[in-house]
DUF2490 domain-containing protein (Niabella pedocola), 234 residues
Amino acid sequence: MIARVVVSLFFFLVPAMVFCQTRYEQTGWAAWFNNTRLNKKWGLYFDVQVRTHDNWNGIRNVLLRPGVNYYIRPNQTATAGYLYTPTFPAPDITNGKTLTEHRVWEQYTISHPVFTGTLSHRFRLEQRFIGRTDEDIFAQRLRYFFRDVQPLVKTGQGFKKGPFVALQNELFFNLQNKDRLNGSFFDQNRAYIALGYRTSPKFDIEAGYLNQAVKGAAANTMNSVIQVAAYTRF
């Protein structure tokens, strides 16, 4: 119980505690997350995301992230994969160059029941190959993510269908070359709350609010995001 209270306070207070001089943005994110099980031990992972510029003024980022899952236990999964993400210049920047980042990533996910829902924890390590206008940078980053999904109606054994609320948070930490990024071990925090509906054990749809607090080299950013996401499991 104490641990849950601490996590809840951390979820809501970190963005306010970290930043004082801040630039504010409003964006939209759309995402699809998919897991396909091939057999008892192996499966495929894939997510695709599209993110807008400030004030929804065009597309800023596209993320394509395939991976391979290894199921250690029913509630534990190890995954390794690759990410490709181009960043497009803002509409008011002429002769802008599309910047591209490639990543190799490894992660471990563990989940367990909480109340009538499920709480999952994800630990991800990223090797980042970041393209910039004047140089290319290699950096490594650690991410910790938790997601709590709770049904809004009484369910039998296992949550198979119905409305739910999702609460999640993710912390990002620079492990290598932080001086060439933002000069800080802390990179960003993403706090999120959403309402969703599970149509079957294979499909969820949700919409919610995400607060992205980013530590910048020259200016910090507080990004208010409206996110729509779909989750499929085959």
User: Anything to note?
Assistant: Residues 69 and 79 are 4 Å apart (CA to CA). The chain has one domain: 2-97+106-124+147-169+190-233. The mean pLDDT is 91.
